[in-house]
């Protein structure tokens, strides 16, 4: 009776085939996530959207920051990493809390980090805020095409 299959043999084969398909799918998902996360270094998802574009000899980062003023935003460039932070506090005018029927506008903050594809000229960076859209222009540094040969001793 060794040649006779059990009632659960086909189910076991089905689970093995399903596990192999899930492994293949997971590998392709990891590749897609790796390609996206190579540039985005933010620790968690953010409600603040941004775009990074290459326009000629500069990168242009555009960030949606509705309701933020210039003083609410902080931009830092360290090497090839651009960090953008914003914090907006609730208006603290002398308002009677009991007059509100619904109050959702509170302290808001965000933090985004983006690794730029190339080194930029930190002295030439320009940032503007217009109608809730932050635009940061980062000129790229000219690449050094003068390769140097190194002799091996």
Describe the protein.
It comes from Natrialba swarupiae. It holds the Pfam family HSP20. Residues 41-153 form the SHSP domain. This protein is an alpha+beta fold. The chain has two domains: 9-38; 40-91 and 107-139, Immunoglobulin-like. It is built from one helix and seven strands. The strands form two sheets. Strands 1-2-7-6 form a four-stranded antiparallel sheet, with no helix packed on it. Strands 3-4-5 form a three-stranded antiparallel sheet, with no helix packed on it. Strand 3 and strand 4 (81-88) form a beta hairpin. The radius of gyration is 26 Å and the shape is flat. The model is unreliable at 32-37 (pLDDT under 50).
Strand order of the largest sheet: 1-2-7-6
CATH topology of the largest domain: Immunoglobulin-like
Chain-averaged pLDDT:
77
Shape: flat
- Our measurement of the CA-to-CA distance between the termini, rounded to an integer number of angstroms, reads 74 Å
Summarize the SSE layout with pairings.
Layout: H1 9-37, E1 50-55, E2 58-64, E3 73-78, E4 81-88, E5 108-115, E6 126-130, E7 133-139
Antiparallel strand pairs: 1-2, 2-7, 3-4, 4-5, 6-7
Structural key phrases:
single chain; 153 residues; alpha+beta; Immunoglobulin-like; 2 domains; four-stranded antiparallel beta sheet; three-stranded antiparallel beta sheet; 19% helix; A-crystallin/Hsp20_dom; Hsp20/alpha crystallin family protein; Small_HSP; HSP20-like_chaperone
